[in-house]
Amino acid sequence: MSDTHTVINPATAEPVTDVHLASAAEADAAIEAAHLAFRAWRDVAPGERAALLRRFAAVVDDHVEELAELEVRNAGHTWGNARWEAGNVRDCLNYYAGAPERMFGRQIPVAGGVDLTFYEPLGVVGIIVPWNFPMPIAGWGFAPALAAGNTVVLKPAELTPLTAIRLGELALEAGLPDHVLTVVPGKGSVVGERFVTHPLVRKVCFTGSTEVGKRIMAGCADQVKRVTLELGGKSANIVFADADIAAAAASAPSAVFDNAGQDCCARSRILVERSAYDEFVSLLEPVVTGMRVLDPADESSEMGPLISAGQQRTVQSYLDDVEIAFAGTAPHGDGFWVPPTVVATEDPSSRIWREEVFGPVVAVMPFDDEAHAVELANDTEYGLSGSIFTRDLGRGLRVARAVEAGNLSVNSHSSVRYWTPFGGYKQSGLGRELGPDAPLAFTEEKNVFIAH
Ligand code: NAD
pLDDT at residue 218 above 80? Predict the structure, then answer.
């Protein structure tokens, strides 16, 4: 029986196209073909593998507009974001195209011979992608995995398969051999499960909810399968009274409402030192109410819809039991819209303060001093990112070191860079992606001793 998913434009609730969902047998066939392709791919000369990845990057570059247009329609992303996302895949491929010739092992002094280490590819890597950033998260997995000599099977989220499918085609167009990168659209419970249970998949890279991530980690334990998890977040944006309060207030909305808040790094808890609280909130309000929340088909849109009716309901459920301080606007009618919304709270046990909303909602809370700010920031099961605004650089560094999270920025909300490591503390994840070491996470380190 053929199973399909109707892709919906979340800005209009209109159908875009139907996508075939792979069965478990089709997933197995893709995994087995990727396993056969691995034998040849691992032996492609480093320079040649690098050249193929650069060619793939060039072909993606030629299709940035097309890929961006697909994401605007499929995921409701703004044009600016969607172009950045397609460009990010290109940049990631170019960056990791530098890796094949640089997979250096070591020569370690030993008695009676020579000791060498090698980084060997794992085999087939399964990448499971969520719907919030379909292109970048796919690229963060496949670019370093391919560079290290692995073959990849990639499952996009059910809701957002279109750009991944196109990237799979572009890989072939660029000359990557068949089955080196295979996109397998399908359900998590079918295709994703097979990545976890099929013994020929040697590593799973999962990005998504903490709940599903825990199940995947438990499933991988059965085969001691390698796993990288990038999960949820509830990141803090800490604003000290000595900061440039106007700059902090001007930048706080985009740090949480970008991608309609559907961002694991969203700074969805704003902590403001009590003496600057009123000033900060009064400067925040016009920025939030002035945001251009429009159908992203309009190039001037700064924020689009949520991905689905279900996500809209989930986000709305958080707003039903809180007092809203102020909110921006959103289109009426069809489409899955929630306006950017600010909630003031002094209750660190409240749901809005503790749970990941994954929508355009931010909670603001005052704090008394540095120790209190750090205590509140760390009072969460998550630890993905965070920001600190202060003119005191010593304090900026001290607090950045004290916050239990993988990615901090001082006086900015820097987004993820492909050339710096990214990942979470605590229940935000396991392992790191990106940065100079990412290809090594797709290898085994082998030690060889040769007697004189
Ligand atoms: P999700 O966990 O439901 O799904 C993510 C992916 O996992 C999808 O492709 C889905 O099909 C697949 N999946 C679902 N059940 C599965 C199973 N049993 N076995 C294997 N695969 C399965 O999450 P979502 O709703 O798509 O994404 C939103 C969540 O992802 C948020 O909680 C967000 O914080 C998190 N997220 C984290 C990061 C990060 O880098 N840390 C990035 C993006 C999203």
Answer: yes
Query: Which residues have CB under 6 Å of ligand 1?
Result: 128-132, 155, 157-158, 188-189, 192-193, 196, 207-209, 212, 215-216, 230-233, 264, 356, 358, 384, 424, 428-429
Distance CA 67, CA 65 (A): 6
State both tokens at 117.
């280490």
Residue 243 to residues 85, 393, 411, Cα–Cα distance (Å): 31, 10, 8
Per-residue confidence band for 308, with pLDDT thresholds at 50, 70 and 90: very high
Distance CA 369, CA 346 (A): 15
Q: Is the pTM of this model over 0.85?
A: yes
243 CB-near residues (< 8 Å, 6+ apart): 276, 389, 390, 391, 411
**Phi, psi (degrees; rounded to nearest 5) at 192:** -60, -45
Mean pLDDT across 415-431? 96
Q: What is the pLDDT of residues 314-355, one digit of tens each?
A: 999 999 989 999 999 999 989 999 999 999 999 999 999 999
The catalytic residue among 71, 193, 230, 273 is: 230
Token pair belonging to 61: 């570059």
Strand order from edge to edge, sheet including 341-344: 324-327, 341-344, 361-367, 269-273, 236-239, 385-389, 407-410
Asked whether the predicted pLDDT for residue 126 surpasses 60, the reply is yes
Pairing state between β 124-128 and 151-155? parallel
